[in-house]
Every structure is written in structure tokens, then in C-alpha cells.
Amino acid sequence: MTAAPRDVRRRAGWLPADQAHLESWLRGRRERLDQRDPDQVLHPSVAAFRDVVEGDPVLRLEAHEMIAQVPSSGDYAERHLESFDELLLLMDEVVRSAPEYGEQMVMTPLDGILDWTKATPAGFAFYRDPRVNAALRDVLDAWCTFLSAEQSLEVIVDAPGGWRSDAARRAVGMDQFEHDPDDEHWGFTSWNDFFTRRFREGERPVASPDDDAVVVSPCEATPYRIARGVRRRDDFWVKAEPYSLDELLAGDESVDGFVDGTVFQAFLSALEYHRWHSPVAGTIARAWVQPGTYYSEADSQGTEAWEPTVSQGYLAHVATRAVVVIDADDPAIGQVAVVFVGMSDVSSCVIGDGITTGTHVGKGDELGYFQFGGSSVCVLFGPDVVEAFALGAIPQAPDERPSVLRVGSHLATARRGTTAG
Asked: Given 34, 283, 308, 413, which is the most exposed site by the fewest CB atoms within 10 A?
């Protein structure tokens, strides 16, 4: 029996479950560099990232050390990267292309390039530095611009590696989604347009639409964990991954109402739907995007480069994320907060038009989307609000095959006949 992937990114299909397949993909990328025109200059965003790193002695040291610190024996006998210059060239190749489909696809290719460097002593520090994150944000914005352009449609074709191939269509479940089957690109205008595709009418009905006590899943996602009795402040970086409300909600005024409450977290898979919906009917109290890190991982998850097993709870506190606080119509629920967490390449959190303070939303109404893919979502409840979670919302054990909780399906039931305090 094949062991379950250690890393949530691999369970979710963002990176191959088998490290050997990631190394094979990287070999292919490195071979492309051998045919690269030596006079081709770096993309401006990648060149700016290089200048930030090389312009500071500490960052330059960390950038070179995080590559050198990757072990060179056992699972690491094949070198992941040889130098910082090679890392820059590989990044440059990524920002000029869209992810291709494949059984061992790398849906977050920048993450695939940086993967082993992130969990080294130098890498932990490097990817938390605000200057590095600002430069990486510009790289990701540039890539997102490409993925939103018509030229990114080159991979939405009926060919090996194309998203219109029979294998890709089955994997995505394309018949569930709005598209034009007769158009050469299914009627999409860009890769991002394809990736933020919508379900056909009726594909995801909202559970118990007339019962405000029934809370629904805001995303198409696999349950990760449920934490009760969460604290205002806790050591979110330690291995147990406790939630720390001050950091999770970026110091928002709603924090007091969630102390001793419950957090539900789930992760989004690479081939699933990537739009967000309201878990309750209510009025938007606040909605904003909180800047954060892009490739930082929790060093508590392991000391070897491949060992970070989860980091989803950690990322909810430090990664770029969108936060939506809702005053539920049901007084027994009170306020609900939903945190949509970006992960590595997937950090473009877009709040929908009109989702602003004072807007009333129905249960299941759209709130926004991850412009490229998705990573994780947290739903926060106050103390004694949740009577029970639905069976499908209970996280599976690490060695079980993950099952997806459908967007709009029953997530939890609130206690009835009380008023949340």
C-alpha cells in the first residue's frame, strides 16, 4: 500500500505525491534552460527579486545558504537546485507559462522550484523577510497577469498536457461546469478564467436554504481539522498548531467574540472549484485582504527539507489571506468569520464586487475567489455556537483517502433558541 503523502500540498494535488516525480519535472525544466537564448534577459519582476536579494548581504547569504543546506544524501542524492542563479532562471521560465495537465502535474511550479529550500535553517528566515515577500508578490502579480492574458490559453487544448484532453476533462469533472464544448478553448478568455470557472446551475444546491441554523461549506474543500476553545493568543508556530485569534484575524475588533470558540479548517485541491461562498445568511461587517508571506513554512514541522507535514494552521496566521466577517441573521450564531488563505503560488485573494460593509448576503452567495487555484479556508464560530458538525465535515485520518466537502453542503448546525454572546 502506498503511504499517504506527508504534505497537504501533495494530498491536495498541488505538488506530486511522489518526490521523484517532482524531481523529474525539475529535470525537464533544467533541460529547457540548456536551450535558452543566453542573451534573453530576466523578466523584470524576477530581475527585481534578484536585485533585492543581491543588494543586501544577509539576504544574499540566506539565498545561497538555503540551497547549500539541502542535504546531499539519501532522499536528497539528486540535487534540487545547484545555485541561486539557476533558481532565478527557473523562476523566469515559470512566469512565462501556464501549468499543464498531467498525472504527476506540478500545479504550483514556483513552489516546486523552491520546495526544498523552504525547510532549511536559512530558508525559514529568508521566506519570512518582508523584503523578500514584497519582491515575491511582484513576481506572482506578473505571473497572474500572464495567466489572465489570452496567450495563457495555450494549455487549454485537446492534446497531451492540455486541459481539453479526455484525461483532464474527466479529472476536472468538466461536465459540471459552465463552458462551451464547441469552442477551441471552451469559451474561456484566459487560464485564470478557466481556473475560476463556475458550476452549472443546480450542481451545488445550498443545504437547508430556509433554515438559518444550518451552516454550509464556503468552499469545495477537504476537512483538515476542528479546534475548540481557541485562544486570543497562542503559539501558532509550534507543532500542535494551535490557533491564535489575534494573528488569524489580524487584530480585528471581532476577535473577542471568538475567544473560546471553534475553528473549522479545510484545504482546497488543485482540480476543484476555487470560488468562495457565504456559510450563513447575514450582513457583511468587514471584508479585506491581509498581506502576508508566500512561501514561509513552520520550522516546527520538521528539520529535513521534505518533512513539513502540514503547516496549514501556521499559514492561516502568516500567509496572504482574505478575511470576511459576517453578522449572521440567526442570533444564535452571532458573528462568523471566514478566512481564505493563500498558499505559495496561490496568493491572489479577490473579494467579490459589492462584498463590503453593510451588504446583505444569502447563505451560499458568492464572496470572492482565488485567482489562481486555492489553498485553505477557516470558518470561525463563537463559544457554544456549534451544536454539531455534519459527518462529512469531520477530518479524515492522515492515512485515509481524503473526501471533499462540497461547497454549499451541510457543514455544521448551530444551537437553537439561544443568542450568541
From this structure: 34
Residues 6+ apart with CB under 8 A from 101: 155, 161, 162, 163, 165, 167, 168, 171
Tell me the Ramachandran region of residue 208: left when phi exceeds 0, alpha when psi lies from -120 to 50, beta otherwise.
left
C-alpha cell at 61: 547569504
Phi/psi-derived region of residue 91, left when phi > 0, alpha when psi is between -120 and 50, beta in every other case: alpha
Residue ranges per structural domain of the chain: 8-151, 214-414
Q: What is the mean pLDDT of residues 300-308?
A: 52
Which residues contact residue 333 at a Cβ distance below 8 angstroms, ignoring those fewer than 6 apart?
212, 213, 215, 280, 282, 381, 382, 385, 414, 420
Q: What's the burial of 295, exposed, middle or buried (CB within 10 Å: 0-12/13-18/19+)?
A: buried
Three-state secondary structure call for residue 112: helix
Summarised one tens digit per residue, pLDDT across range 243-287 is 999 999 999 999 999 999 999 999 888 888 999 999 999 999 999
State the Rg of the chain over Cα: 21
Rounded to whole angstroms, the Cα distance separating 380 from 142 reads 33
Rounded to whole angstroms, how far apart are CA atoms 407 and 362? 14
With residues binned 3-state (H G I as helix, E B as strand, rest as coil), the percentages for the chain, rounded to 5, are: 30, 20, 50
